[in-house]
Design a protein that fits this description.
Layout lengths: L3 H10 L3 H10 L16 H8 L2 H9 L16 H7 L3 H10 L14 H7 L7 H5 L18 H8 L2 H9 L21 H35 L9 H23 L43 H4 L1
Helix pairs in contact: 1-2, 1-3, 3-4, 3-5, 4-6, 5-6, 5-7, 7-9, 9-10, 10-11, 11-12
Protein name: Target of rapamycin complex 2 subunit AVO2
Organism: Cercospora beticola
InterPro entries: Ankyrin_rpt, Ankyrin_rpt-contain_sf, Dendritic_Spine_Reg/Scaffold
């Protein structure tokens, strides 16, 4: 006779809610049922990874993860598996039921937000993770390789995820442990151009918002009869120069990564150490320099 633990896993994979309910009712101690041959994934891990919301709802109602969030041997939670596999409905259910697990991270230092950014099918889950009232995900959190969710979204080619993360305050100039920004992981030239336009658009909005706030403050001060200091032309020019410097910094950072033909791009986040680039091409080797006739010294030595 097949063991109850095996029958339960098969019933979950068949998405048979009634069969799962009957097996657990007759064998309540098999509710979590970790599979030690498969990274110790529990019943909820299995249902979440395959995107079965009805079975997940049943398992939660029976007390699965009521006391402690289950993790497998990779320290993945069921929410992480749902995010990794693009199961938006299950991911939303788990984020609402167990919001405290949203900031949890696995052995690679990745949380549910980073995994959702990796999978275009989980893009709609990103705002839910970012906007949770009690345990919101952080847009700039870094994994063990230094990659942010923006790095993963850029590598996955999810343009919508890029826009959501930038609107949430993600830093487009953040560098990972290999000194690469998210822009360097763009899958195509078109995606890179779109990403650059997004960054410039967000920066323009920030500057417009700052100017609007300053103007509103001046109007309030004038209406309240407070003293308003007159700004000299020199100070205005200095302020304009400051804004120009900020824009130049961003432009310079963007240009350093803009040459899809001449420069080799890094591998995707987590896919190995990328080959580092030299700004002016490969540096010359002294061993290849032509020597002077007679003494055998190189020009570098004689200079």
């Amino acid at each position: 006779m097949i063991e109850a633990s095996t029958r339960l896993r098969r019933a979950i994979l068949l998405n048979d809610v009634l069969l799962v309910q009957r097996i657990i009712r007759n064998n309540p101690h098999f509710l979590q049922n970790p599979d030690f041959a498969d990274k110790s994934n529990t019943s909820l891990h299995l249902a979440a990874s395959h995107g079965f919301p009805e079975i997940c709802t049943l398992l939660i109602s029976l007390g699965h993860d009521a006391n402690e969030i289950s993790r497998n041997s990779d320290h993945d939670t069921p929410l992480m598996l749902a995010a990794r596999n693009g199961n938006y409905e299950v991911g939303t259910l788990l984020a609402k039921q167990f919001p405290r697990c949203i900031p949890f991270y696995n052995k690679q230092g990745m949380d549910a937000l980073a995994l959702a950014a990796q999978c275009p099918g989980s893009t709609s889950l990103i705002p839910i993770l970012l906007q949770d009232e009690s345990f919101p995900a952080r847009a700039d959190v870094q994994d063990l390789d230094g990659n942010t969710p923006l790095h993963h979204a850029s590598a996955s080619g999810s343009l919508k995820a890029l826009r959501i993360l930038l609107a949430a305050g993600a830093n487009p100039l953040a560098k990972n442990n290999h000194d690469w920004t998210p822009l360097a992981y763009s899958q195509t030239v078109a995606a890179e151009v779109y990403f650059k336009n997004l960054i410039q658009e967000m920066e323009k909005r920030r500057q417009d918002g700052a100017r609007a706030s300053e103007e509103l403050f001046r109007k309030k001060m004038a209406a309240a009869g407070g003293g308003v200091r007159l700004v000299s032309k020199q100070e205005q020019d200095e302020g304009a120069m400051g804004d120009g410097e900020d824009e130049q910094i961003i432009d310079d950072a963007l240009k350093r990564h803009w040459s899809p033909v001449d420069r080799r791009r890094p591998g995707t986040p987590g896919g190995g150490t990328p080959v580092m680039r030299h700004e002016w091409g490969s540096p010359p080797l002294l061993g290849h320099m032509r020597t002077r006739s007679g003494d055998g010294r190189s020009r570098a030595e004689s200079g």
